[in-house]
């Protein structure tokens, strides 16, 4: 199967700082860089670099950033016929602080991303049909995500939802996904638990079980350097983190989602695909930038020693 991504496209304006600023604090940056980003674009690039035929649906503005980001997707071998260029709109932008330890703080200006709609009148961009691995996140309009997953005829393939950033109003869409991918903060938000509650593996697993809406659904919780845990109605998969030198965590979750989609589209069992995605993310955090940090299939295979 192929991978179809519905998602955001942003230009990331990255400021390198010694430590993330506290509320009301003014600090100096040591460098500024521009990187292609947006959760959707990052995930699509990760999928394509990991060997999957990948198509992208989203929107940019008719500005310089939009032109640069469109070319970047094309240069990564992504089918961009589903990428709209919206006249008079600004391309999405992210302002990102990255500390010396690789941690980040991000503020998003949605721009054209939140003006995306599928055309229901037979126009140039209807909801894509046919079985595929479908991947979406919450940097797009919720109505578009629902249309993307709720395919007429029910032949949507495998639907992966990364409901980030955490939006309580998006909670009903979680039931449409076959695989949910969340981090600990997002898990706590959707489970209605304190964000700084019990971080034990048992607590994470219990909260993840609470998000399951049907027997064939999986909830994957990424745990950063600790790896991940995935739960189904009667099963559990745990994978430990891989030692790596962390340079920049921006886009690590996106890398994980894109790599997971790519390996599932190739027919790998979920446990193997999760291990592959975990290794891919461990490579991404060792590089600067988001979309630019996504590894190739060969690099991940080498990391796993296959």
Automatic annotation (TrEMBL):
Transmembrane segments: none annotated. One of its GO terms (molecular function) is metal ion binding. Activated by a monovalent cation that binds near, but not in, the active site. The most likely occupant of the site in vivo is potassium. Ion binding induces a conformational change that may alter substrate affinity. GO terms for cellular component: cytosol. One of its GO terms (biological process) is D-ribose catabolic process. Pathway: Carbohydrate metabolism; D-ribose degradation; D-ribose 5-phosphate from beta-D-ribopyranose: step 2/2. It comes from Rhodobium orientis. PANTHER family: RIBOKINASE, SUGAR KINASE. This is Ribokinase.
């Amino acid at each position: 199967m192929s991978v179809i991504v519905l998602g955001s496209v942003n230009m990331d304006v990255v400021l390198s700082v010694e430590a993330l600023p506290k509320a009301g604090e003014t600090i100096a940056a040591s460098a500024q860089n521009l990187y292609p980003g947006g959760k959707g674009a990052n995930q699509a690039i990760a999928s394509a670099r990991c060997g999957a035929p990948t198509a992208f649906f989203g929107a940019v503005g008719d500005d310089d950033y939009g032109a640069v980001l469109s070319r970047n997707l094309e240069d990564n071998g992504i089918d961009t016929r589903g990428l709209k260029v919206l006249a008079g709109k600004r391309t999405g932008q992210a302002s990102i602080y990255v500390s010396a330890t690789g941690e980040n703080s991000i503020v998003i200006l949605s721009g054209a991303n939140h003006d995306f709609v599928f055309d229901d009148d037979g126009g140039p961009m209807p909801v894509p049909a046919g079985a595929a691995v479908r991947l979406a996140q919450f940097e797009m309009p919720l109505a578009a995500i629902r249309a993307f997953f709720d395919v007429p005829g029910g032949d949507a393939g495998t639907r992966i939802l990364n409901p980030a950033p955490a939006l309580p109003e998006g909670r009903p869409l979680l039931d449409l996904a076959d695989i949910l991918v969340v981090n600990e903060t997002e898990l706590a938000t959707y489970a209605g638990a304190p964000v700084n509650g019990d971080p034990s593996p048992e607590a994470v697993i219990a909260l993840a079980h609470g998000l399951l809406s049907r027997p064939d659904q999986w909830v994957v919780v990424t745990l950063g350097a600790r790896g991940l845990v995935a739960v189904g109605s009667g099963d559990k998969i745990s994978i430990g983190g891989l030692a790596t030198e962390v340079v920049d965590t921006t886009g690590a979750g996106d890398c994980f989602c894109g790599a997971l989609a790519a390996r599932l589209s190739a027919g790998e069992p979920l446990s193997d695909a999760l291990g592959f995605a975990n290794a891919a993310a461990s490579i991404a955090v060792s590089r600067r930038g988001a979309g630019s940090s996504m590894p190739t299939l060969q690099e991940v295979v080498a990391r796993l020693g296959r």
